[in-house]
Amino acid sequence: MQDYESSKAATQITEADKVKIKQLYHKMVKQIHPDINPKVADSEEFKGLWQRTVIAYNCNDLKLLQELEMLVGKALESISEDQVEIEIPDIDDKISELEREIWTIMETDPYQYKFLLFDKDAVEEKKKSLEDELKQYKDYGEQLDELLNGLLSNGVSIIWEMN
User: Fold this and answer.
1) What does 88-104 look like in DSSP terms, one character per residue?
2) What number of CA atoms fall less than 13 Å from residue 101's CA on the CB side?
3) N or C: which end of the chain has fewer CB within 10 A?
4) With the C-alpha atoms ordered 36, 39, 45, 47, is the resulting torsion angle positive or negative?
5) Mind listing the pLDDT tens digit for each residue in 3-39?
6) Cβ(68)–Cβ(56) under 8 Å?
7) Could you tell me if 27 and 69 are in contact, meaning their C-beta atoms sit under 8 angstroms apart?
8) What is the tens place of the pLDDT at every residue in 92-139?
9) pLDDT tens, 74-89?
């Protein structure tokens, strides 16, 4: 009832304060919400902090949220000493496998092309070979045109049927 009365009596707050309130609330939700952080779910201290945080958020009380943020930080420090070590089985094998994958990527063509682009002689050589190949295709196209014209001049007719 007291919370309801204080929220009714609250004055208008600025947009900047609304943003700060929202940021603080979301930050604390990530830290002490019982569904997100199971370590704090059984602690009465964190349950009380969580309830006070929700009330302060609903009442748009920036000052109280800032105080609660400090209290939450101190409370989290006390449980952070009891951190659980995460053990990843075969971590060395997984690291070695990733290193092999990285080397495989670095040795394949798309990755190696960047080195070719910085070598001006290699670029010029590739341009020359492509220009030679293009000339060969053009010559071959001209030969085919001559052959076709020769066939057509001898009275051969070509009928193209579409199915």
Assistant:
1) -TTHHHHHHHHHHHHHH
2) 6
3) C
4) positive
5) 666 666 655 778 888 899 999 998 888 888 878 877 7
6) yes
7) yes
8) 888 999 999 988 888 887 777 777 778 888 889 989 999 999 999 999
9) 888 777 655 545 566 7
Give the number of C-alpha atoms closer than 13 A to the C-alpha of residue 112, restricted to the C-beta side: 7
CA distance 109 to 143: 36
- Looking at residue 22, its amino acid is K
Q: Residue length, the chain?
A: 163
Expressed in percent and rounded to 5, the helix, strand and coil fractions of the chain are 75, 0, 25
How deeply is 20 buried, as exposed, middle or buried, from its count of CB atoms within 10 A (0-12, 13-18, 19+)? middle
Structure tokens at 26: 């979301």
Q: Which amino acid is at 1?
A: M
- Going from the C-alpha of 142 to that of each of 71, 135, 149, 159, the distances in angstroms are 86, 11, 10, 22
